[in-house]
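In the laboratory, one determines a bound structure by crystallizing the protein with its ligand and collecting diffraction data. In a computational setting the workflow is compressed into a single prediction: the sequence and the ligand go in, and a structural description comes out. We illustrate the idea with 2-acetamido-2-deoxy-beta-D-glucopyranose.
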Amino acid sequence: MKFSGILAIATTLVSLASAAPATKFKDVTTPFYLVTTTQSTSNSHSSKLKNVSATTVFAPYYQPNLLLREIEPGYGSLPTWTLTNGTLHTTQAGPHGIGSYVYNSTSVQAGGELQFLAQSEPNSGFALKSGYLLTINGTEKGWTLCTGDLGQTVVSARDLVNGLSDTNVFFLQVYYKGTDASCTPTYIQAVSTPPY
Ligand SMILES: *[C@@H]1O[C@H](CO)[C@@H](O)[C@H](O)[C@H]1NC(C)=O
Ligand SMILES: *[C@@H]1O[C@H](CO)[C@@H](O)[C@H](O)[C@H]1NC(C)=O
Ligand SMILES: *[C@@H]1O[C@H](CO)[C@@H](O)[C@H](O)[C@H]1NC(C)=O
Ligand SMILES: *[C@@H]1O[C@H](CO)[C@@H](O)[C@H](O)[C@H]1NC(C)=O
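The predicted complex, in structure-token form:
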């Protein structure tokens, strides 16, 4: 009797846990921008978020996977996002600017880059907690900003084309639980207007 009672409770807990990602967070189909910030609370003026930075996608070697990095004021345009079924989506040009594809977030690994591929991807646990805080499996902690192993080479490969020097320019890239000494923790927020 007692034993079956315990089993019933255990079964209930398991089904609650597996149901959680689907029931707790809603799909967001109104396009939003992604920013990095050290603040976990929202602000209707994204420019007032602490240490806020706009983000953009990039493919320094014209490789198929897009990565996410900070971008300073002066950009031409920023990617917008939607989030359905545990996956982030953004519409971008394909390699070498050819075509237009819906890029989807891939499942994140500790120490790995946040990446997007122009192919369908399974639910990998992305959600917007309280409608704005980017989470994986329900937690907003774990995002990091790192100089990344591409470092200066990235700038040489791409920004030199735009006439930028490769000596003084570097930017921070989003990793999940990045372990490099350069990495600092960040939150990622969905905002309706860019901070700058
Ligand atoms: C946030 O901004 C403040 C003020 O500019 C700066 O001192 C601090 O180092 C920044 N923190 C991070 C984690 O970037
Ligand atoms: C990305 O995922 C969306 C939604 O599942 C899908 O409609 C789209 O076709 C996918 N992108 C590609 C290039 O397959
Ligand atoms: C949502 O993700 C689940 C799990 O990966 C998948 O089986 C399902 O087909 C997806 N639904 C849609 C509408 O993409
Ligand atoms: C999120 O949960 C899924 C399902 O349990 C697991 O496969 C995945 O590794 C988790 N992701 C992270 C980043 O912990």
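Residues 38, 51, 184 surround 2-acetamido-2-deoxy-beta-D-glucopyranose (ligand 1) (CB under 6 Å). Keep in mind that any predicted model is a hypothesis to be tested, not a measurement.
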